[in-house]
Design goal:
disordered N terminus; 2 domains; single chain; 71% helix
Length: 219
């Protein structure tokens, strides 16, 4: 109960950057707040939590101009919020996320293991196509493959490529990448995100009727 209360307190007040904190510390704070918002906060409080998180991510981008990593995380935050909101009302968030990813790619397309490619590819895959949105399956696949090439063992790169294949009606190919994502090495600095992603993978495998063994390295 105390842990839950602390989580709610963290995302219910405006995020303030610690004076003198370096970029790694500030990015770690955004990562942690994202994982809590995505996986621990109830739906009735997610909107407020995401609003605070968006503000926090924008502060970090402003604090570190010319750095690709804050822009990647700004895009991740915005695109995740768009996915939570859904519908046409989320399109503005999705467009802003695309701008952040594109800006980061111009600075350093390898930042955070190619995460901008993976996230932008997912955005192109999930957003409706013309005339409602900017979704594009060809661009989605190109970016997702680029992200996978840069981080072939990563949990997110494999998970989101699997999601794309599933959505494209290729469940057998998707299973290969879901299983690889499940078996990805743990990220010691992101245990909550890893645990949440792994639960999502388990749900997808069950959805696709997979009944084989799971021997993931994540705890």
């Amino acid at each position: 109960m105390i842990y839950r209360l602390l989580l709610l307190m963290l995302v219910s007040v405006p995020a303030v950057l610690a004076h003198g904190a370096d970029i790694e510390t500030d990015l770690a704070a955004v990562q942690t707040e994202w994982a809590i918002t995505q996986y621990e906060i109830g739906d009735d409080q997610k909107d407020k939590a995401f609003e605070n998180l968006v503000s926090h991510a924008r502060q970090v981008v402003k604090k570190y101009p010319g750095h690709a990593e804050p822009l990647v995380w700004q895009g991740i935050v915005l695109s995740t919020y768009a996915g939570h909101k859904g519908g046409l009302g989320a399109l503005g968030l999705a467009k802003e996320a695309r701008q952040a990813f594109e800006a980061s790619l111009k600075l350093d397309d390898t930042a955070l293991g190619g995460s901008a490619h993976t996230s932008l590819g997912t955005l192109y895959s999930k957003v409706p196509g013309w005339p409602l949105g900017f979704g594009d399956d060809d661009k989605a696949e190109a970016h997702l493959r680029a992200g996978l090439n840069m981080n072939p063992e990563g949990i997110d790169a494999n998970y989101f490529f699997a999601e794309f294949l599933k959505d494209q009606g290729q469940p057998k190919r998707a299973l290969v990448y879901y299983q690889k994502a499940y078996q990805a090495p743990a990220r010691p600095d992101r245990p909550l995100a890893d645990r949440g992603r792994r639960h999502e993978i388990e749900a997808r495998l069950e959805e696709l009727g997979y009944s084989g063994p799971l021997t993931g390295q994540l705890q």
